[in-house]
Design brief:
heterodimer, A: 79 residues, mainly alpha, Non-ribosomal Peptide Synthetase Peptidyl Carrier Protein, Chain A, 54% helix, B: 353 residues, alpha/beta, Peroxisomal Thiolase, Chain A, domain 1, seven-stranded mixed sheet
Amino acid sequence: MNNREKYNNAFIESLDVEESQLAGLKYQDVPAWDSVGHMGLVSEIEDAFDIQFETDDIVDFNSYEKGIEILKKYSVVIE
Amino acid sequence: MDGERVLSKARIVALSTVIPEKKLSLQELAELYGDDYIERITKSTGIKEVTVAAEDKTSADYCYEAALKVLKETGLSPSDIDGLIFLSETPDYIIPNTAAILQERLGLPTNSVNFDMRLGCAGYVYGLFQASMMIECGYCKNVLFLAGDTMSKYTNVHDRSLKMVLGDAASATLISRSDNPTPSMYNFFVDGSGANSIIIPAGGCRMPIKHGVTDVLEYDADGNGRTLENVCMNGMDVMVFAINQAPKLINGLLESTGWSKDDVGLFALHQANKIIVDRIVKVLKIDKDKAPFNIEDTGNCGFVSIPLLLSTYYSGINSDLNKVIACGFGTGLIAAAAALDLSQTNIIKTFSV
C-alpha cells in the first residue's frame, strides 16, 4: 500500500466516507468529522505512518489537503 | 518530597464514591441518534452507559450518602469534623450555599468551617489542595471534602455530544491532620479565554432565565440541540486544552517532586473519554497500565472521575500508591495536577443508591 492509499484509508476507516468524497473534504463537512472523529482520524494516520503529531498540528489539520501538507513535516510524502 | 510548596501536615485518610442506581445505556438512544452514531461514539469514547441521577435527588443527596460511608468506615463522629467543603457545579440552590445545608443534615459542629466551591473537572484536585491548606494552616483537624455533580439535569436529550458522555456521581474524602502525614504538591493552570468552551449560558446574573428566550431549543452545525439553560461544550477546544495542558502540568510536577515516570505507581487522569486519556498517555510516554480508564459503565462524571477511578480499581489500602499523580482538566478552562501519597488511604469501593 503506498502512502496515498494509507492516507485515504485512514479517512475511509475513521470517518466512514467514500474515496470520492476525500478531495476538498474539511473538518465538520460530514457528521463523523467532529472533535471525537478528528482524534480518531489523527490516531489512524499516526498508526499508519508510525509518527506522533504535535498538538499544534492536530489543531491545524482541518482538511484532507492540509493533512498532506502537515505530514511533510514528519517526512511523509503523499504523492 | 520537600521544599516550600509542599503541604506536609495533612493525610488523605479515606475516600468514598457513590453513583446513582439508574443508568442510561447508549443503545437506548439509538432510535434518536441512529445506530451508526452510537457505535462510533462508543468505540471512540469507550463509554457504553452513563449514570443518571434520580429526578428527586441532587448532588448534595449523593454526597450525603458518600459522607455517611466515610464516617462509618473511619469511625469518626460528625462532631469530629471541623471543616466541610462542598464542590459542585450543580448545587441545590443559587442561595444559600449547599455546604450549610449538609452541615445541618450531617450533624456537623456549628463552629466548623463551611463553604461551597464551584469548579469543573479540575475541581477534585483543587478540593484536595484547599482541604490540605485548611489542615496546614492549623485551623482544622478533620476536613470532609464532598464533591458531586448531576450534570444530567442540565443536559438536553437532543445534544448527543453530551447526552452520551456525561454521567452523575459523588464522592466524600476525609483529610486530617496526622502525626503520620502524607505530603502533597500541586500544579495549576487557568486560561479564562476559554470560559465559553464549557458553559451553561443562562441562569446566572449575566443572562437571567427568561421564558421564551432562554428555554428555546436550537441546533448547532453538528446537529446538537440545546437551550441556553443547558450545558454546552465545544469539544475541540476542550480536547486541545486537555492534551496540551495536562502533560505540561504533570511533567512540571514530576520535576518539582523529583519523581521519575517510573517511580509513579498511578497516573489518575480525569476520565473525560478514552481518546483524551489515550492521547495524554501517548504524549507523556507512560505505561498505559499506570493510567487506567474506567468509565465504560458510568460516563464522564466530571471531577468525581478521579476518586471514582480509585474506588473502582484500588479499593482497600494500597501500599504501592505512595506516589500518585492526579490530574483534572476542563471547565474554565482550568487544569490542576497533584502529587499525592495514597498508600495509607482507605479507599472504599464504589456503591450505588
